[in-house]
Input
Amino acid sequence: MIDWSWELLAEPERIVLRRLAVQVDGCTLEAAEAVCGGEDVAARDVLDLLARLVDRSLVVAVERVGGHRYRLLESVAEYCREKLREAGDTEPVRRHRRHYRELAERAGPHLYTADQQGWLDLLDTERGNLRSALTGVIRDAAENRAGAKDAALRFASSLAWYWFLRGRLREGMRQLGAALDATAPDGGETEPVPGAVRAVALAWQAGFTVLSGDAADDGPRRRAAQALDRGDDEPADRARARWFLGFIECDFGDLSVSEELVGAALAAFDGLGDRWGTAAALGTRAKHAMVRGDLASLRRDGERSAALFRDIGDRWGYLQATDSLGNLAEIAGRYEEATELHWTGLRTAQELGLWSEVSSRLSWLGRVAMLTGEFEQARELHERAIRLAREHSFKPGEIFGEMGLGIAARKAGKLEMAETHLRRVLDWMPQERSGLGNTLPLALILPELGFIAEARGETRAALALHLEGLDVARQLAGDPRGVVIALVGLAGVHAQLGRHRDAARLLGAAAEAGEATNAPPAPAERGDIERITAKVRGALGDRAYRDAYADGRRADLDELRSVAGDLPSQP
Output
């Protein structure tokens, strides 16, 4: 039947129909003109020829916002691809790759603006064409076709932010990896790829690898950072790639490395007048301040970032900034404000289809629910966050959700369930305890496991866990809130051992550490403190408790740590 219809077509109609088969899942009129037009058919005639083919039911026209979209039924498309091969007509394939590469490169800058939503939707619609075109360009690069190596890396990098925003991390990792492999230097290049182009692609691929769950090997991140430091061509692209590595490093690498990368990127952004980059770097600095317990800097940088992103119109960026401000509200015990900020962020992320962000916001809401004693709601929110994170291979979201489930279960007295969730996160952590990203979750997980062991009467296990938690928080993560939690946990162990004076000193040290960072535990986080304090005060009496507590506030933390770890052979 298709063959019979084909025979009835005029030659220009046949040319347009077979060339249309190059498109994946249809195309716009602009794309049809770019790909189907050529020496045999003028681009201005393509619309009329498409209309005739629609009348003959060989092409389907679907009305969309902004114009019609033209596609072939699969049986017709397969027939036309065969006709294209028979005709030896390869130019439409090259034009298809060029058209969608140019679309991706044109769309890239708009993803950082108030037009973000519309361009995300456009790239979603053209996802099949973009994938097909990029795969073809990478194949050309592997075959050393003229200009293809540079084109493949630029094409892949121009889609990186789209993949990130949409949570298509594994797709991005695969495509960037394929582009890098196809363009790897072999010493015989006649058209060497500019250094910045390869360095930027390396940075994106290293970051996606971490976000997809492989944070153990920091080699790719280090090599990408070193590549970005070699040369000064394309400074704007280098600066954004350097910021992205710092953004990733903040959660999964070394905090000091993240601060160095983001600081260098911020200086470059200021010099370039890149307001988006400045806003992004300030937002990441706010995260650094949160980890360091510097609440004044957290507020300052978070508010500056939010103001810039609001002015630019980038809703993803504004989400990041308000995320930090929501965390600040939660730390201060302003749970209604934190809930409002996170719910607003959740709705925005859902509207934009930013599913990784949706997962994160669900977990933050779950944490606030846990802090306010709504344990069932906390469980439901964290489970939703985990399911969504798994669907999009977003490992940070999965970890955050598991941690939330574990902490909420422990506070609800469900010790076995709590340990199961917390051990899952611990199993994901590399055995080498180094670098912030590998240790920041530990500063929360280890004390929680310590409290579980204490509740079971497993004193020595609890002691070991709290001591390691203290060391992680102090030496590796630089997390003052983690220090407070570990000291409270150690106080609980010593109270259980009957060493009540040492327990009181540890409680005093915990209070001093919290106040030193202007972030003492909020009322909803004081359950363990109040439980242990009541036990110790009851054993010592008020006066002896106050004296030991005051002594702990003045004590050297290294000395306290040494005493806390010195137990008799038989507890």
